[in-house]
Amino acid sequence: MSQTYTAVAVAVVVLATVLVGGFGLRISRTTSDFYVASRTVGPALNAAAISGEYLSAASFLGIAGLVLLHGPDMLWYPVGYTAGYLVLLVFVAAPLRRSGAYTLPDFAEGRLESRAVRRLVSLFVVGAGWLYLVPQLQGAGMTLKILTGAPGWFGGVLVALVVVVAVAAGGMRSITFVQAFQYWLKLTALLVPAIFLLLAWYGDDRPRPVLDLASTAAVRADHPLYATYGLIVATFLGTMGLPHVVVRFYTSPNGRAARRTTVAVLALIGAFYLLPPVYGALGRLYAPELPDGAAADAAVLLLPERAIGGLGGDLLGALVAGGAFAAFLSTASGLTMAVAGVLTQDVLPARGVRQFRLAAPLAIVVPLCGSLLVSDAPVADSVGMAFAVSASSFCPLLVLGIWWRGLTPPGAVAGLLLGGGLSFAATVLTVAGTVRSGWPHALLAWPAVWSVPVGFLAMVLVSLATRARIPAGTNAAMARFHLPEGLT
Amino acid sequence: MTGPSAPRREVVTGEPRRVRPLPRYRAQAEIQEQTALGGAYVRSLMRSQLRAALTVFAVLALTAGTLPLAFAALRDATAVWAVLGCAAYPLLTLGGWWYVRRAERNERDFARLVKGRPAP
Questions:
Q1: Closest to A90 (Cβ–Cβ): which among B13, B57, B78?
Q2: Is A340 buried (19+), middle (13-18) or exposed (0-12) by CB count in 10 A?
């Protein structure tokens, strides 16, 4: 019975996404509309769109699952996802918008005047985007499998199809509306069931959830304190470099609006992240026996049925499933948009909206294959690796590029290759399962603690050694990044 | 379709370049011509903005750096839930709000500085 409700809820979300996207398509006319929504998106709409795009499967399902499984230390994930926006706000938001570039490769080329750096950055953007897309598609497959019994590949393929249609048809303008809509949908889908769950818990004479997990929590890492710091560094510094996050800032009308948008985003995602811990805590009470591993991600989906039951539980479960699907769709479309943008500009031979429409399927097919091949790791953990790569490559590039006149193209290349390359290699080794325990495993699974300093150091030292290569336009670029519009 | 010799099409996603209006203030002209004085103006703005950014970042880094140790020492799960599950979010938003006010004030001060002397 509940399967019917779930199928209906998912179908409604998919249909609404296509319809809102179609509405955007009708007003999406020019190339500038297509890529950057003509840079006219005000703070309120843009903040909802950024939040809608950012709150992925990892936020919607993964956090509650990890809290359920490993205890309150996992709450560092949502805190890190939010704090990352604060770091982005203070170091990057306004100058990045004022740089006038559209993608990270544009920024790198504009600042360093080097095609080689541009190509390398493109490579990393595509890599990080694909790394982040895999767990979204896996999560979609898992959700549909658990709730409706559909085969595991079906959810991922469905998400990929809807995303390609929405992205290829309407571009950024329509995606902006879709994602703003999906933020509010996700908030509702988590808030309403949470209220009913709390009422049910109150009605059960408020049994005390097991808050202290020292005894029950599954061992997550040999060195939990190190893992926590690895997580903090990766999420705090990695947010600013995520390809789908960066593109969003170019849609603001000016630097001041970009800053105000970011504060609104902080408030919106902060409000959302109050909810997953509720599910995690109640999950320990009502669904303690959930099998471990990836299946813990299903806690949010199964909780309404377990705790409330009956028709009400079924309906609330369907609402949550719809919200989860919105999460997969919005993050996947944002990432596909960003990766397809880079593919069109830097990889495919000719440019234009037609090529963009060809690039969109290409951007999602590769991670789709990846999600079908790789065995399922918990969603939030895989996402953490994409953050680590971004923190060790894009974060030094952006922060030093915006605030330090001494950065040179060879320095940037060295930092990207050493910081980003090493963290990427560590991710690959972890996923391949070559090292399984002890310090080597901890160091490889949470590489940010060492790879971020390596990236920064390599960039600074090599730049200092190649002072003669400081780009001629550095001073002009600094004035453009930092001066308020109207004074330049 | 077009022949192989057709020029490659370029997509323009940047803002249309407008003709720059003549500078209205002397400092604006100094900045545009990248004189030593103009450079000093830009550096002073960058310094004040970086100071605001580093203030927020230092508070954030100190808190995030010590909290895991504090939690490990306290061994009180309720405190972890209260801080990470609830209290962190309003504080982060408040930090962002403070920074935006500071940064916009820095920009206003800078604009006043630049507009202080009209162009000759």
A1: B57
A2: buried
Set of chain B residues whose Cβ sits within 8 Å of the Cβ of A350: 8-9
State ipTM. Answer: 0.88
Beta strands in A276-321 (DSSP E): none
CB contacts < 8 Å between A and B, how many?
Answer: 146
Sorted by sequence, the CB contacts under 8 Å of residue A327 that are 6+ apart come out as A55, A56, A57, A59, A60, A61, A139, A182, A186
Distance CA(A412)–CA(A346), nearest Å, equals 18
Query: Do A422 and A454 form a contact (C-beta atoms < 8 A)?
Result: yes
In A, minimum Cα distance to B57 occurs at A87
CB contact under 8 A, A211 and B81: yes
Residue B31: which of A71, A229, A479 has the nearest Cβ? A479
Q: Are A58 and A381 in contact (CB under 8 A)?
A: no
Give B120 to chain A, closest Cα distance, Å: 17
> Is B56 close to A90, i.e. CB distance below 8 A?
yes
CB contact under 8 A, B104 and A478: no
Domains and CATH numbers, chain A: 2-374 (1.20.1740.10)
pLDDT tens, N- to C-terminus, chain A (488 residues): 467 888 888 888 888 877 777 666 665 555 555 555 555 677 888 899 889 888 887 788 888 888 887 788 889 999 999 999 999 999 999 999 998 887 889 899 999 999 899 999 999 999 888 888 888 888 888 888 877 777 878 888 888 888 887 776 666 666 777 788 889 999 999 999 889 888 888 887 777 766 555 444 445 667 888 989 999 999 999 999 888 887 777 778 888 999 999 999 999 999 999 999 888 888 877 776 665 555 677 778 888 877 777 888 888 888 888 888 888 888 888 888 888 888 887 777 666 666 777 788 888 888 888 887 776 555 566 778 889 999 999 999 999 999 999 999 999 999 999 999 999 899 888 877 777 778 888 888 889 999 999 999 999 999 999 999 999 889 989 999 999 887 75
A332 CA to chain B: closest CA distance, Å?
23
Phi-psi region of B17 (alpha: psi -120 to 50; beta: other; left: phi over 0): beta
